[in-house]
Design a protein that fits this description.
This protein has 131 residues and is mostly helical. It is built from five helices and no strands. Helix 4 packs antiparallel against helix 5. The structure holds zinc ion.
Length: 131
């Protein structure tokens, strides 16, 4: 599986790894809910292995909101399609309620993964053990 092996962007995003070395952790824990609730204490500032400063510039994380928005739209489309397929006579307000609940329940994972995706746009994997 080349897509999920070390060196691919997907590896860094799915396994919570530093985008540069793929060894150090990006988030302090792998639990998205814990990361969201304890954000100020739990966000790693630097990679413990290669010392990459995760905040590449001031306000860098604002860009991850675009990724988060795209993920939210994807969740919305999936749940809209599912509710329309399985409950064709559903009231529109109930459908909107289901979609909003799905987005809220997915928000910790969305927050967790959107920052990883965003930093992977800008940082290249460097397979080197001499950091
Ligand atoms: Zn690293």
């Amino acid at each position: 599986m080349r897509l999920l092996s070390k060196g691919s962007k997907m590896y860094s995003v799915l396994f919570n790894k530093c985008p540069k070395c793929h060894i150090g952790k990006f988030w302090a824990t792998n639990n998205p809910i814990k990361n969201m609730l304890l954000n100020s204490k739990n966000t790693c500032q630097k990679c413990e292995y290669c010392s990459l400063d995760y905040e590449l510039e001031i306000g860098f994380w604002y860009g991850s909101m675009y990724v988060s928005y795209a993920i939210s739209v994807a969740v919305m489309v999936v749940f809209w399609t599912l509710t329309s397929l399985f409950f064709p006579l559903i009231n529109i307000f109930n459908e909107i309620l289901i979609i909003v609940l799905a987005i809220l329940l997915a928000s910790p994972i969305n927050y967790h993964i959107s920052r990883l995706i965003w930093i992977n746009f800008f940082v290249k994997y460097i397979p080197n053990d001499t950091y």
